[in-house]
User: Fold this.
Amino acid sequence: MNEQVRSILDDKIEFIKTDECALYLVGPILLPVELGDETAFFHWYCWLECQEATEDIDRIVAKLSSQNLAEMQQSSVLVYGDFEHGDEALIRMHSICHTGDIFGSRRCDCGYQLHQSMRMIVNHGTGALFYLANHEGRGIGLFSKAMAYLLQEKGYDTVEANVKLGFSDDSRSYADAIRVLKTLRQKPVTLITNNPRKLDALRDSGLNVSGRIPLWGDRSEYNAKYLDTKVSKSGHMASGCPNE
Assistant:
């Protein structure tokens, strides 16, 4: 790698050591995002889990360029405002939903939650949205999620479909996202979520979580059973949940 490329990347790739492997965090990268009638300017980071732990930038780039990273899932985070130093910050741990986030499917409320949480963070002035790429279908993957959808079309709810396919109701881990969050911010955060498991994961890790904001909406005939199952079987907190 030549000196010019090295000088660009050298202070933009951060090494985060874990017990089992290493995380490499690249960023920040300016990302203008269209939110309704306005453009919000976020700073984007992406992280990658690797078995080899090294802080040698030349070795990192050489090794990654020899692999097809397009076949590996990588998560990222959108940071808004003075996230490191701001006294109050909102965060959202958002699980990827190929059908809802990209295609706008109304079988779930994921697309609504993604864009609404981004608006909430911008309106608040400081925050971060973590986009967790290995969380499709609550951790079962896109192909398995497609099979679960077929079961749901025959009357099974979300939890029943996952279990019938041999999966747990929710196998998602937030460990890597929490490590990245701790790298980017030391001050308290307020979590945008209805899911007590997310809240517990952050608090159990030692993070200072000052509060929670519910995120319900976009209820329709297509996702009513899905939303009700979140509360009745997955333990989601019902405060703010529309019931009609």
